[in-house]
C-alpha cells in the first residue's frame, strides 16, 4: 500500500512539473542584470507594466516571463527618476533574453539585450 501511494505521489509530482514546463515554454523569459549602483525595475512597453524588480544595485537581478512579441524594454530606478529603454526587441516563444543595465562613460544609464 505504501509503495502504491508513493508511486501515485511521484506520478502526480512529475505530471505537475511537465505541465508547468509546457505553460512556461509558451512565454519568453527576460532577466534584468543590474550592474549599476541603483535599485532598478524592468518594465515592458511602458512604465505601468512592471515585469520584475526591484533588482538590487551592484549585481542584483530579477527574472520574469512575458508574452512573445515585439516589446520595448524599459529599465528605471524605483522612483522612476532615471530610466533607459531599448529599441523594440522581438521576443519569441521560449526565448531567454538578458537585459543588462550599466552606467556609461557619460554617467547615463545604458541598457543592452543579449
Pick out its properties:
4-stranded antiparallel β-sheet
What features would you describe in this structure?
By secondary structure, this protein is an alpha+beta fold. 21% of the residues lie in helices and 45% in strands. The chain has one helix and ten strands. The protein has one helix at residues 2-25, and strands spanning 28-34, 40-44, 50-55, 61-66, 69-71, 73-77, 83-85, 89-91, 96-103, 109-113. A four-stranded mixed beta sheet has the order 4-1-9-10, with no helix packed on it. It is globular.
Secondary structure topology:
Blueprint: H1 2-25, E1 28-34, E2 40-44, E3 50-55, E4 61-66, E5 69-71, E6 73-77, E7 83-85, E8 89-91, E9 96-103, E10 109-113
Parallel strand pairs: 1-9
Antiparallel strand pairs: 1-4, 2-3, 2-6, 5-8, 6-7, 9-10
Counted beta strands:
10
**Please, how many helices?**
1
What's the order of the H and E elements?
Answer: HEEEEEEEEEE
What ranges have pLDDT less than 50 throughout 5 or more consecutive residues? 1-23
Portion in beta strands: 35-45%
Shape: globular
| Secondary structure category | alpha+beta
Largest β-sheet summary:
4 strands, mixed
Straight-line distance between termini: 52 Å
Radius of gyration: 18 Å
Share of residues in helices: 10-25%
Rounded mean pLDDT score:
85
Major sheet: arrangement of strands: 4-1-9-10
Concise summary:
By secondary structure, the protein is α+β, with helices and mostly antiparallel strands. It is built from one helix and ten strands, in the order αββββββββββ.
Amino acid at each position: 500500500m505504501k509503495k502504491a501511494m508513493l508511486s501515485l505521489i511521484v506520478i502526480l509530482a512529475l505530471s505537475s512539473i511537465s505541465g508547468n514546463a509546457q505553460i512556461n515554454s509558451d512565454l519568453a523569459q527576460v532577466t534584468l542584470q543590474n550592474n549599476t549602483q541603483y535599485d532598478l525595475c524592468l518594465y515592458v512597453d511602458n512604465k505601468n507594466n512592471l515585469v520584475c524588480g526591484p533588482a538590487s544595485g551592484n549585481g542584483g537581478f530579477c527574472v520574469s516571463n512575458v508574452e512573445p512579441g515585439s516589446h520595448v524594454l524599459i529599465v528605471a530606478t524605483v522612483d522612476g527618476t532615471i530610466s533607459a529603454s531599448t529599441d523594440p526587441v522581438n521576443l519569441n516563444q521560449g526565448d531567454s533574453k538578458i537585459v543588462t543595465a550599466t552606467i556609461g562613460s557619460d554617467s547615463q544609464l545604458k541598457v543592452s539585450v543579449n
